[in-house]
Amino acid sequence: xxxxxxxxxxxxxxxxxxxxxxxxxxxxxxxxxxxxxxxxxxxxxxxxxxxxxxxxxxxxxxxxxxxxxxxxxxxxxxxxxxxxxxxxxxxxxxxxxxxxxxxxxxxxxxxxxxxxxxxxxxxxxxxxxxxxxxxxxxxxxxxxxxxxxxxxxxxxxxxxxxxxxxxxxxxxxxxxxxxxxxxxxxxxxxxxxxxxxxxxxxxxxxxxxxxxxxxxxxxxxxxxxxxxxxxxxxxxxxxxxxxxxxxxxxxxxxxxxxxxxxxxxxxxxxxxxxxxxxxxxxxxxxxxxxxxxxxxxxxxxxxxxx
Length: 306
What we know:
The protein is mainly alpha-helical. Helix content is 75%, strand content 0%. It is globular and about 65 Å long.
């Protein structure tokens, strides 16, 4: 019964942030389609253009949708692992799923709630000044979303759990197995110059290399200087979530293409956008993992806080 409550609680926690983000996105999309301001290519000079035609508004909306899709992919993968951990056909299967669920829980919880705040904030930006008018609901979405990274001890605690406990599970075998599965997916992403995936494979490949490198480095650093390792935990958790989420989006797009799904083109573009704009930040996050302790810990850091 305790395990069932735990699984149900985490499923609810994982879904809450994603649901709030989706609501904020849908409202922003509708507003952008209706609100007219400024000029845009293809619109007569005598008319105001719907703001959805402005490049930066389109960028924000697609960023929002891609982040939600990645968070949903992480959350659903986590949910499947939780289900198999309880209902798998044999003990070995259940134990493998339980370990994967334990690894994914801090990732899906933290990333899903972080992007909930980010998406709600971007939705406010799309609404402009109207976002602060209560009847639009945009400000309420942000207030509702802002609590989600604080539940259960804040997302910083999730990052510490990921690095301090989950990274070392079964002497690192759980992380190695999961990353190996992601690497198999990346190997199947087309690399041709004219591929609709663009540079997805390259971005995911670089992100995967950065993630593997950081995982090994943190494993060693935990034994030498735990505080230094934990100083970069949040950056590592973000990197892990981006690489895993982006790879799962690519897997979904590849599956849709194989099945001839009508949504294949949209899924491919979302996977490409996420890889090229979000996963591409992995190198900066790797630098933060390695060097956060230099400015966060010690007497010099104490002086910053005075």
